[in-house]
Amino acid sequence: xxxxxxxxxxxxxxxxxxxxxxxxxxxxxxxxxxxxxxxxxxxxxxxxxxxxxxxxxxxxxxxxxxxxxxxxxxxxxxxxxxxxxxxxxxxxxxxxxxxxxxxxxxxxxxxxxxxxxxxxxxxxxxxxxxxxxxxxxxxxxxxxxxxxxxxxxxxxxxxxxxxxxxxxxxxxxxxxxxxxxxxxxxxxxxxxxxxxxxxxxxxxxxxxxxxxxxxxxxxxxxxxxxxxxxxxxxxxxxxxxxxxxxxxxxxxxxxxxxxxxxxxxxxxxxx
Length: 271
Known about the structure:
Elements: E1 2-9, E2 19-24, E3 27-33, H1 48-66, H2 72-87, E4 101-108, E5 112-118, E6 122-127, E7 130-134, H3 138-153, H4 157-173, E8 192-197, E9 204-208, H5 210-217, H6 225-235, H7 237-250, E10 264-270
Antiparallel strand pairs: 1-10, 2-3, 3-4, 4-5, 5-8, 6-7, 6-9, 9-10
Helix pairs in contact: 6-7
């Protein structure tokens, strides 16, 4: 596996980025931490969600460096159990919202590659005429409906935030075959996996969080994932992200979203 490019950028909130990205050994990954608008801090980090994404990031780096990961879905199930056990050592009774994240993970083995998606992260693979993606519109549709409801009912900021956390509680426990990664004792992990046999070299994989995926799914800056991949290969990730930010900054509003822009994390590798 050869790392072609990687990049990350915070969104418009001005907060410390809750996204992470990396590659080590036979793994590459991106992690999208769910924003903590209430700045809850019950865990030893800048916020609860930063504790979670840092813990997952370090675990993937350690496991990947060993080069022995066989199953991405199996690895994430192990990490979910490990983090649940760690969290059990803390008194979290006053935590209003359990931290959670989305992620996309690439596992490279001699005979195949595996891309695993949890939540709204994206994995796209191309090799010759082969083009495959692991993505979902589930979370975007749910947020768009929530935005419309907030406008129609003229909800207050507190009511909007409370409704957001109720949706996250559903995602932690799993709904309609989708979930987020949390380590919650009642959490259910729905990991969607794409397994592709390797026939020589030349596979290119893009992993990204929804902050970059918006360029395809929301803004239509690119007609699809292949066009986004071409732009990332041709211009570099930082240039593509800069174009995305310029579009967001120039827009009067972003339909279907509560935030004008979101954190971005992306990794581009060749297998």
